[in-house]
Structures are given as structure tokens and as C-alpha cells.
Amino acid sequence: MNCVIEPGLLEGTVSIPASKSAAHRALICAALAKGTSRLTNLSDSEDIAATIGALQQMGAKITRTGSSVTVTGILEPPTQPITLDCGESGSTLRFLIPVAAALGLTCTIIGKGRLPYRPLDAYLRELPKKGISIQPERQDALLPLHMSGKLQSGVFQLEGDVSSQYLTGLLLALPLLEGDSRLELTSPLESAPYVDMTAALLRQAGVPTEKTPEGYRIPGGGVYHPLSLAIEGDYSQAAFFLTANALGSHVRVDGLGENSCQGDRKIVEILRELCYTKENTIASGLSVYAADIPDLVPVLTVLACLCGKPSRIYGAKRLRLKESDRLAAIAAALNAIGGQVSQTEDGLEIQPIAAFTGGTADSCGDHRIAMSLAVAATRSTAPVTILGAEAVRKSYPDFWSDYQKLGGTVHVISLE
Prior knowledge:
Its main location: cytoplasm. By secondary structure, the chain is α/β, with parallel strands linked by helices. It contains twelve helices and 22 strands. Helix content is about 30%, strand content about 20%. The longest helix has 13 residues. It is globular, with a radius of gyration of 21 Å.
């Protein structure tokens, strides 16, 4: 789907969808619990659907009614080979590989889009040391991935600066093993708030972990308890409307937890620290270290374009391995509509502009690029055409509907 966004500020109230990060973790904890869990306020995104589908294949019984889900935990893991379809969800893939290994499943893991090419180095290196046969089917891609064996406890070494998803996957899986395990980080941990979120949900599920100077110690023989939980709103999605407010819109954002441990809550602090002129334009520039908040980079780049001074975003090299090369994609997209964004090895440098000038920009099939372009359109002097606007279905299916309810004008010009 391609669409044209007319220039104009937004106004009204929006309820933000549930945190995708929290929902993935809660669903997995519920599927591993002995009993029935009830989760409410789940969003209907493609990524969450992928996790639900995979957990059902693994033996969990999951019933969905609207935004509520009832999960009866896995009683007997399937003994026959199964297929786990992760769609385009990196979280589904990296969280469930070690969980499937801990359950002793024989499975083929598949995915689409860029997912088959996203790294799995830590698992391919560490899991075979602990009893798992894990082998990509092809030489030019990591998916389909064939896996069998029963994971053994022990010491696992992980790079902390590659992806916190590996750490989360093992934190979810290792309590299921008989013996104790240790996670040792070989480099400083980035995206630490995501790991904190995992540890918090594990505590709620009655599964303890212990933080150590080297990483984590995970006692074996853990028993997951059922959850009764409402999933909090997603700060990474709220960031689009909060940033639009910094650029002149007036949107009330509902559904966020004030005491959330989501790393993307940082957007509130970043926006609060901006300096404005008497004309209500942003006088300062941005200097953002983005290692802990990679999902905010696309919309922060929009904001940086409209700051009064040059800006820099750095520590974001992992964004080259997302649904798109997000550094290249957001730079190209914003430059196509009048921005002045250049890439560095691990980030972006942005020169200020008075307004975007409109034009056609490619989302590269990336939901966060598409939504960032919608924010850019609020401060454009001419319409912005977004190619691949349907990408928002991955995380925020109602984004365009919400955008229009807030006064945004969206014309669908192609259903391709």
C-alpha cells in the first residue's frame, strides 16, 4: 500500500497499543507456566500473532477474545517434528530458539522478509556446546533453521553489545533445566532496559534470576506460575505522537505507565530537555547515544531535522540489521522529502531545515520508517507520499486509522 499524507498538525486523544516487548515476554512466560494465565490489552500486530502461533505449535493452548488472551501452559511438549513460523519478528525468533531447545523440541524455524538474514551467531556458537544440533538449511541464509536435542545447563558466553534478545531468550529458557546456569557477558550490555523487563516478568512468574558482576546466574528447576496481567502501553509507539507534539501538534497520549521500565520511556526525557524559542521553534540540537533506545532513532531523526542546530545520533550500528538497514533507510527517506541527513559508521548526522518539502519516500517495508514519515508530514510544506505504508501492520495495525482520527489526511493511492 502506498499513501499520500497531506501536511497538517494533529490534535486529539490516542490510546497507545500494548507494548510489543512486554507482550512477547508475557506470552512466553504464560506458555511455560503450570496452569492458566490471563493477559489483557494485547495489540493485534503481526509480530504478536507470530509469537502466539509459534507457542501454539509448541503445545500451549491460547484463546484470544479481542484484546484479551487466555493461555494454558505447555503440559507435554510435542514429540513429533514441528515448524515454528516467526514471520518477520526478531523477538519471536531469538526468544523461542533457546526455549524450544530447553523443551527438547525437534523443529524447523522459518521466517520471511529480512528475518532469515538477521544474525544468530551467539546461538549457533553456544547451543551446540550444550547438546543442541542447530543447522541452517541454506548457505546464503540462516532460515529455515533445523534444531533438535535437549539443552543442557552450564555456562553461556554472550556479547552484550550485539542484541539483548539473546540474553532474554536464555533467561526465559534456562530456568526450565535441571541444573544451574550462568550467563557471562563478554562485552558491556546494551539495551539493558529490555533485559530488566525480562527479569521483572520472570519475577512475576515466580522464576528468580540473580544478577552477578559477570552477567546472570539462573537456578535450574524453576516452575513458572500463571500470570494475570494487563500489558502496558508501548512507549516506542507513543514516541511518534509525543514527537509530533514537540513539532507543534496537540495529542493526548493515553495508556502509558508512568513507572514503566521500558527503555523507550527515554523519549519523555529527551523531549523535556529541548530548548524552545519565543516563536515555539526548537533552538537546540540533539546529541543522542542510542545503544539502549534503538527503536527511537527513526523518529528522533525526524525531530533532529527540525531542530535549530546540527544534531548527532550515535551508538546505533545494530540498526543496520533490523527490518531494514534503518540508518540508511531513514536517511534516504527523509532526504527524499527535503531533509539533510548523512550516515556515519554507527549513526547519523543531521543538519537543520525549516520544514520538509514533500515528495516520495520509501519505507523499505519498515514499520518505524513509515510511521516516522507520517510525523515528518506534519511539518511539511507539501504532501508526502509513503511507499510501503502497510508496513505498520507489523507493530501498530491501527496507526493510519488513529492518525486520521487525530485530523491527519491520508489518501491511499495504491494497494500494491
